[in-house]
Amino acid sequence: MPSRFQGAIKQEWEPVVLQKSRPKAEDLRDPKAVNQALRTGGQVQTIKKADAGANKKAAPPAVNARKLDEAEEPAALGRVSTEVRQAIQKARIEKKMSQAELAKQINERPQVVQEYENGKAVPNQAVLAKVERVLGVKLRGLRK
Question: Which PANTHER family does the entry mention (predicted)?
Fold first, then answer.
């Protein structure tokens, strides 16, 4: 069976020097290390953070964000009109359906039907189309 080491065995007598690794930044910021350096007269670097110790609030932006939003978009979205709400209620009651039954047939939550009948919902054409189909009434031609 052949040996694994093919060459001649040599010994190297050169000295090996082990050195301490440099301390990490975390260790240098440790309060114990800083106090030790101050006691021994070591070098300690101090840096003032921006606005450190100043108990001031940040300056408000130059332009009010609310004014920008109002300038670009309408403040309030249109709600369901009274004609549409009354038409939904009337058709649902004529078909003897509850809000929950109507919601189930149009695959929406009962809260959605309730919001449409109370006039709190923002009109969605897809939901109105489903309600039209189930109740057999025209809703999208009415004023919103």
Answer: ENDOTHELIAL DIFFERENTIATION-RELATED FACTOR 1, ENDOTHELIAL DIFFERENTIATION-RELATED FACTOR 1 MULTIPROTEIN BRIDGING FACTOR 1
CA dist list (Å): 60 to 51, 55, 57 = 16, 15, 9
Per residue in 45-87, pLDDT (tens digit) is: 777 777 666 666 666 665 666 676 666 666 567 888 899 999 9
Among all chains, which residue has been given the structure tokens 């109105």?
Answer: 128
Residue 126's pLDDT is: 92
Q: Which amino acid is at 49?
A: K
Pick the CATH number of 82-135 from 3.40.50.360, 3.40.50.12280, 2.40.40.20, 1.10.260.40: 1.10.260.40
In single-letter form, the type of residue at position 90 comes to: K
Q: What is the DSSP letter of 119?
A: T
